[in-house]
Amino acid sequence: MFAKHMLVRPLAAASAPVPIGNERDLRLDLFRGVALWLIFLDHIPENIMNWFTIRNYGFSDATEIFIFISGYTAAFVYGRAMRERGIVIASARVLRRAWQIYVAHIFLFTIFMAEIAYVAATFDNPLYAEEMNILDFLKQPDITIFQALLLKFKPVNMDVLPLYIALLLFFPPMLWLLLWQPALALAGSALVYVLAWNFDWNLPAYPNGVWFFNPFAWQLLFVFGAWCALGGAQRLSPVLRSPAVLTVAIAYLLFAFAITLTWYIEPLQRFVPGWLSDWMYPIDKTNLDVLRFAHFLALAAVTVRFVPRDWPLLKSPLLRPAILCGQHSLEIFCLGVFLAFAGQFIIGEWSGGPLIQAAISLLGILIMIATASLISWYKHMEGRSPGSRVKSPDADLAGGEA
Amino acid sequence: MTLNKSIAVTLALGAVCFMAYLADGARAAPPAEECDIPQSFVESEIDLPRTLTEIKDKHRLDVSVVGTGSSGLAGTEGARYAYPARLDEALKAHLKGFDVKVTAHVQPKQITAAMVSGMGKILSDDKPALVIWQAGTADALSGVEPEDFRSSLDQGVEQIQSADADVILMNMQYSPRTESMLDVSAYADVMRVVAQQRGALLFDRLALMHYWNDEGTFDLYAATKKYDMARRVHDCIGRGLASQIINAAHLDAVRMQTTR
């Protein structure tokens, strides 16, 4: 009760830009769907299709898109819940979502362990005596599995979900603050980001080291997404419409592209002045480097400019597959991680050439689309299709889409 | 009819055998004399001035190889077949009449920070003109933060350069079987950046082995307990390094001057 009172008043004042009851912004689903495809492609190391993913053309990659949109949709869904049903119900739903993701993560971990155990049992090559030390953890399954349950042991490619869980665990108070004092919340988030950089905050990982995606740094993107969903985007829209911002954004994207080129075409490296590379490198993914964040912002600014909310193509069957995948992001993300394992395995076993790699990538995406359609069909059957909230206003959008 | 059938069966069997032979041939490594190393892997715009001076002025070349497990091979004969020894032989073959000495300092599982603490002694003992520093794998295995790896590596390269020696950094092996468990890309990026910033050479072992695997020169995915392939890979890495050193230090010109 108290919480409701706290919330309602300040919100009423700022309610104009808050998208209560708005139709779902299909752009979010579209880009999250595309991000999921890109994450899948990037997770198959031996893959010619990697060349089509955005990480080769700039500083940021699909992870930024995924985390931002996840923050946006989480605020969209649970923000409404918090306004309509109060802080307790909304928090409970956020935590239930975190639990679902935790279960999904452990499920993926099991599949991963099976793969590792297979490799350990079948592979031997004196050339790789050093690299095979990575399998040492199999000698202590008791410790390893406990560490995995504690989210400290995260094999390669399994870092995103623990990050998501950590972000959701801290989301209820942040969401409350975002609804009450959005500017303060965003400033607080930026402060945590800065402090994390200055004091090397991160969570410990097993067997040693820290989380690959530092939650104290990446929360900034998540909270920024949430802030945009709760009216920030409207507040920013005059800025985004200005030609100067567009020019700066495009210039920065071109700059990032030029720098990225020098990573792949060595002779170009001499055109990068020493002071610039001294200042710029390393571009840290773990701590969400400012250059990466800025690259994402530039990308988003340009995208928003050229893909309006009512873009006719959003309703076309052409983009429907990506949108469907984006609407069931947790399931499709997990499926993508699994498919990447499987695809990598097949490519390795067959020493697959570019054609097989392309075929496997395409097949993987088709499976993702088919699964998303199936999930959609199930939800439709149960009368809870995303976007159409007519039937039951209490429909748990959060169940599958936040 | 039966004759036709038996001919057809024989032909089919023959075709299968031939295809199996071709497939096998594609996977088998080339004979030890030739290694498939594209020019782009061994050419560089960075010179090795110190190496050249030592050859020219003192008619000798001292090289120190500092590395972890993947700079050696197991077994009693391991060191003889590992790439430092192969490099020694390739350089001696090229620089006949010069006093070439490659000294390997291989410490399995040693992370870069630990290698840096031992670097001073290596530099004062060997007094090398060139240090080949293989790093990254142990750090990736131990989960050293890429940023810590970078500062250690940077510190070590500075130390070597201030001891008036050239540096070649060598990155990880390409290991497709462990790729999904051990992500070395961040560490490879760090090595590229440090090499670039410090004007050091990079021997891109990761990309070269990747290329071999793609081209079918070596099937790095294959499971085997034998040492044949490991030795051939090390031989080719040793030769590749020798070519890179010869190119970057302009040693072809040196040899021509002395033989004339």
Supply the key terms:
heterodimer, A: 402 residues, mainly alpha, 16 helices, 68% helix, 0% strand, disordered N terminus, disordered C terminus, B: 260 residues, alpha/beta, Rossmann fold, 5 strands
3D architecture notes:
- The complex is a heterodimer of chains A (402) and B (260).
- By secondary structure, chain A is mainly alpha-helical.
- Chain A has one domain.
- Chain A has 16 helices and no strands.
- Chain A has helices spanning 2-13, 26-42, 62-85, 87-122, 141-149, 160-169, 171-180, 182-199, 215-241, 243-264, 274-280, 290-306, 320-327, 329-350, 354-381, 397-401.
- In chain A, helix 4 packs parallel to helix 14, helix 7 (171-180) runs parallel beside helix 9 and helix 14 packs antiparallel against helix 15 (354-381).
- Chain A is globular, with a radius of gyration of 22 Å.
- The model of chain A is unreliable at 1-21 and 389-401 (pLDDT under 50).
- Chain B has 260 residues and is α/β, with parallel strands linked by helices.
- Chain B has one domain (38-259): SGNH hydrolase (Rossmann fold, 3-Layer(aba) Sandwich), CATH 3.40.50.
- Chain B contains 12 helices and 5 strands.
- A 5-stranded parallel β-sheet of chain B has the order 2-1-3-4-5, with helices on both faces.
- In chain B, strand 4 (166-170), helix 9 and strand 5 form a beta-alpha-beta unit.
- In chain B, helix 5 (83-94) crosses helix 11, helix 6 runs parallel beside helix 8 (146-162) and helix 8 (146-162) runs parallel beside helix 9 (185-198).
- Chain B is globular.
- At the A-B interface, helix 4, helix 11 and helix 14 of A face helix 7, helix 8, helix 9 and helix 11 of B.
